[in-house]
Amino acid sequence: MINENLKNEICRYAKSTEPHECCGFVVLKRGENQPHFLPCENVAEDKENHFEISPDDYLKSEEMGDILALVHSHPNGKPKLSQADLQTQLYSQLDFWLVCDGKIHVFPKIPLLIGREFEHGKMDCYTLYRDFYRLAGYEMAQYERDDDWWEDGFNLYLDNIEKEGFAQITDQHELQVGDVILIQVGADVPNHAAIYIGDQMVLHHAPKRLSKRDLYDGYWLKHTHSIWRFKEWSKLDFTVPLNSLALSLI
């Protein structure tokens, strides 16, 4: 929960900078137990639609303590992160607090897509698939799921994938970036998901392993159940999730 005084301080500051976007950091200063808001100058050229924090302001905030979140506002926009915001969040690996319509909307950071530790229900193949699409600009629902849900009559993927806006495709030779490949391993229903990332490669997260790229061939191809494409894929931008894969190599 956001401290009420901190929330009011941030909202007042955002209002004072309109019609420009505000920006700043929430910092937990060393030796203190209450976070503080540190406003920063917006040095973007188009301040009404974008924000940019100078390296000097970032360093000053970092020297004060632990940066908990990056704050900015959308006085002329919607309460959702733009692709530019998602790109900035990806590189900063910070929670984003977005002020819009007098409210603070919290967007937790999305960990890099490769190298994640597996934890069923929290950091698993569905989480990876959901986060890939979050970075592309589409928010899917979070579904509660027990370990080995496929043995308890639950059908996580097939029960939900169509209502999330996906349609099945039949030609495996026409795969495109972002297609979701449902895989069935030792179960009566598909119980694993991979995302096609181009060049005959998929991104996925198997139990007891780190999330990784794999060649879509052999074992995974053999156990493919079906392939699904987001109906409005042309409205999404897969640049940010693909950049996440590139960052994992650095």
UniProtKB/TrEMBL annotation:
Show the GO MF annotations.
cysteine-type peptidase activity; metalloexopeptidase activity; zinc ion binding
Q: Which PROSITE patterns match?
A: MPN (PS50249), NLPC_P60 (PS51935)
Do the record's keywords include Chloroplast? no
Keyword field: Hydrolase, Metal-binding, Metalloprotease, Protease, Thiol protease, Zinc
Among InterPro entries, the record links this protein to: JAB_dom_prok (IPR028090), MPN (IPR037518), NLP_P60_dom (IPR000064), Papain-like_cys_pep_sf (IPR038765), VirAsm_ModProt (IPR051929)
Domain MPN, first and last residues per copy: 1-129
From the Swiss-Prot or TrEMBL record, give the protein name: Phage tail protein
Upper lineage: Bacteria, Pseudomonadati, Pseudomonadota, Gammaproteobacteria, Pasteurellales
